[in-house]
UniProtKB/TrEMBL annotation:
<keyword id="KW-0808">Transferase</keyword>
<dbReference type="Pfam" id="PF13489">
    <property type="entry name" value="Methyltransf_23"/>
</dbReference>
<keyword id="KW-0489">Methyltransferase</keyword>
<dbReference type="InterPro" id="IPR029063">
    <property type="entry name" value="SAM-dependent_MTases_sf"/>
</dbReference>
<protein>
    <submittedName>
        <fullName>Class I SAM-dependent methyltransferase</fullName>
    </submittedName>
</protein>
<dbReference type="GO" id="GO:0008168">
    <property type="term" value="F:methyltransferase activity"/>
</dbReference>
<dbReference type="GO" id="GO:0032259">
    <property type="term" value="P:methylation"/>
</dbReference>
Length: 214
């Protein structure tokens, strides 16, 4: 986040904030608001955060709430793949960003990895790097950076998804929370990539990260 060179007291919006897990982290960098389509998730986010954040109902691209201001940073963490009109969504989001403001977008990578897991999560698509860059630039945004991430766990996930396809699995593997020890190990492996991402992009991974400017 430091590399984004945000102003002091930055205005930050997380679209698709879910149950609010990212809001306290984002608040280290400025004043944070959220948009969430699910009433249940909104209520949980407000309860978990003690009502510390303004969280409004809304859908993209057609029903965007009016906060009465633009934002220095807008985050869409694993949101765009859930929306049918991704281009229209980014065009609507671009109107919420201050001139020179930033967007951070993460999406699942590689359409060939499509599986029951994506259907379970109500995805519309997975993205290639070229497709993500194209939709960002077509929305009138300037691309600052695009890279894969979640590289270390990619081989295992690709193997599991391929195996599920071969055996014609009717349910999604990996939708349950793993045992605590396994979860900690996987989280540590995933977090270790941040040191690489600070210096360079990654050549492949389960997900894509894009930073763009208005």
């Amino acid at each position: 986040m430091k590399a984004l060179d945000l102003p002091r007291h930055a205005q930050i919006l997380e679209i698709g904030c879910g149950t609010g897990g990212n809001l306290p982290m984002l608040s280290d960098f400025g004043t944070v608001c959220g948009i969430e389509i699910s009433e249940v998730a909104r209520d949980l986010a407000i309860k978990k955060t003690g009502g510390a954040f303004e969280i409004r109902a809304g859908t993209l691209p057609s029903a965007v709430p009016d906060f009465g201001r633009q934002f220095d940073l807008i985050c869409l963490f694993d949101v765009l793949e859930h929306i049918d009109d991704d281009l229209g969504t980014l065009r609507a989001v671009a109107c919420l960003v201050k001139p020179g403001g930033r967007l951070i977008i993460s999406v699942p990578a590689y359409q060939w990895m499509w599986s029951r897991h994506d259907e379970f999560l109500h995805h519309h698509r997975r993205y290639s790097k070229i497709r993500l860059i194209d939709v960002v630039q077509s929305a009138g945004l300037r691309l600052d950076r695009a890279t894969y991430f979640n590289m270390w766990l990619f081989p295992a996930a690709a193997l599991v998804r391929s195996f599920d396809k071969l055996r014609g699995a009717q349910s999604a593997t990996g939708t349950n929370i793993p045992p605590a020890l396994i979860n900690r190990i996987m989280r540590t492996i995933f977090a270790s990539e941040r040191h690489l991402l600070e210096r360079t992009g990654l050549p492949f991974g389960l997900s894509l990260l894009c930073v763009a400017s208005a």
